[in-house]
């Protein structure tokens, strides 16, 4: 099946620093990638949708300058949390679609803790 | 846009018990329907899907039938195992033709030995 790799799985950073999370499709070309945020015991909240080579589309209420998304190739998208603060601590999950299948394949998630 | 309502739980069962997690949806047309599972500390995995009315999706002993009459896609398993302990999410596209998904709030299942 389609595999999406997300790295790192856990990151701890100091307040004010920036953190980059990578999402890679390992065995298919991901035409579209999605970034979600999940709060404890809650469902997934879609943050943005990115298509290779174009600017990401952010959901209402998501700060595009805070959460920078780059989708430079058909197998890699990155999410950079800039000037992170404790309230940005959360579980971030990426997913990807591609290969002609309208199914989202998810990464294992990244737990971000901002001190 | 489309929406989904899912039984929130939590659900606690003994091993070999029967499981039902209810999911109903509101949608324009007949979108594909999905169940995803999230094991502790991990991302989501596609459990099963159905693409049209009366389809039955199945995987790992789980089943769900796409019922347009009741706009439901309930998840069932005849005999749960401890390893089935996870959070289950019902999902469908936000609107026709969209790749974006809208998820239910998730149902946490705990299976005790």
Could you name the ranges of chain A where pLDDT drops below 50 across 5 or more consecutive residues?
A: none
> What structural class is derived from the secondary structure elements of chain A?
mainly beta
Pattern of helices and strands of chain B? EEEEEEEEEEEE
How much of the sequence lies in strands of chain A comes to over 45%
**Count the helices of chain A. How many?**
0
Shape annotation of chain B: globular
Number of helices of chain B: 0
Oligomer: heterodimer
| Major sheet characteristics of chain B | 6 strands, mixed
Structural features:
heterodimer, A: 115 residues, mainly beta, seven-stranded mixed sheet, four-stranded antiparallel sheet, B: 113 residues, six-stranded mixed sheet, 0% helix, globular
Protein model, in words:
The complex is a heterodimer of chains A (115) and B (113). Chain A has 115 residues and is mostly beta strands. Chain A is 0% helix and 58% strand. In chain A, the strands form two sheets. In chain A, strands 2, 4, 5, 6, 9, 10 and 11 form a seven-stranded mixed beta sheet that branches. In chain A, a hairpin with a 5-residue loop joins strand 4 and strand 5. Chain A is globular. With 113 residues, chain B is mainly β. Chain B contains no helices and twelve strands. In chain B, the strands form three sheets. In chain B, strands 2, 5, 6, 10, 11 and 12 form a six-stranded mixed beta sheet that branches. A four-stranded antiparallel beta sheet of chain B has the order 3-9-8-7, with no helix packed on it. Chain B has a two-stranded antiparallel sheet with strand order 1-4. The radius of gyration of chain B is 13 Å and the shape is globular. The chains are: A mainly beta (115), B mainly beta (113).
Chart the SSEs and their pairings.
The complex is a heterodimer of chains A (115) and B (113).
Chain A: E1 4-7, E2 10-13, E3 19-25, E4 30-38, E5 44-51, E6 57-58, E7 67-73, E8 76-81, E9 90-98, E10 101-106, E11 110-114
Parallel strand pairs in A: 2-11
Antiparallel strand pairs in A: 1-3, 3-8, 4-5, 4-9, 5-6, 7-8, 9-10, 9-11
Chain B: E1 3-6, E2 11-14, E3 19-21, E4 23-26, E5 33-38, E6 44-50, E7 56-59, E8 62-65, E9 75-77, E10 86-93, E11 101-103, E12 107-112
Parallel strand pairs in B: 2-12
Antiparallel strand pairs in B: 1-4, 3-9, 5-6, 5-10, 7-8, 8-9, 10-11, 10-12
């Amino acid at each position: 099946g389609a595999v999406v790799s997300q790295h790192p799985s856990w990151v701890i950073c100091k307040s004010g620093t920036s953190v980059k999370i990578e999402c890679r499709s390992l065995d298919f070309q991901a035409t579209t990638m999605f970034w979600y945020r999940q709060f404890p015991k809650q469902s997934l909240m879609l943050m943005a949708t990115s298509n290779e080579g174009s600017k990401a589309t952010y959901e209402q209420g998501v700060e595009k300058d805070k959460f920078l998304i780059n989708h430079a190739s058909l197998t890699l998208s990155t999410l950079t949390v800039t000037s992170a603060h404790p309230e940005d601590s959360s579980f971030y999950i990426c997913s990807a679609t591609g290969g002609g299948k309208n199914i989202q394949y998810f990464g294992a998630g990244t737990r971000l803790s901002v001190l | 846009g489309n929406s989904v309502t899912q039984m929130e739980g939590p659900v606690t069962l003994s091993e070999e018990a029967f499981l039902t997690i209810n999911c109903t949806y509101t949608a324009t047309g007949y979108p594909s329907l999905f169940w995803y599972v999230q094991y502790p500390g991990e991302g989501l995995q596609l459990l099963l899907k159905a693409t049209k009315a009366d389809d039955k999706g199945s995987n790992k002993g789980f089943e769900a039938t796409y019922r347009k009459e009741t706009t439901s896609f309930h998840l069932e398993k005849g005999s749960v195992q401890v390893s089935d302990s996870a959070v289950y999410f019902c999902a469908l596209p936000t609107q026709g033709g969209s790749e974006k998904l809208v998820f239910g709030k998730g149902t946490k299942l705990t299976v005790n030995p």
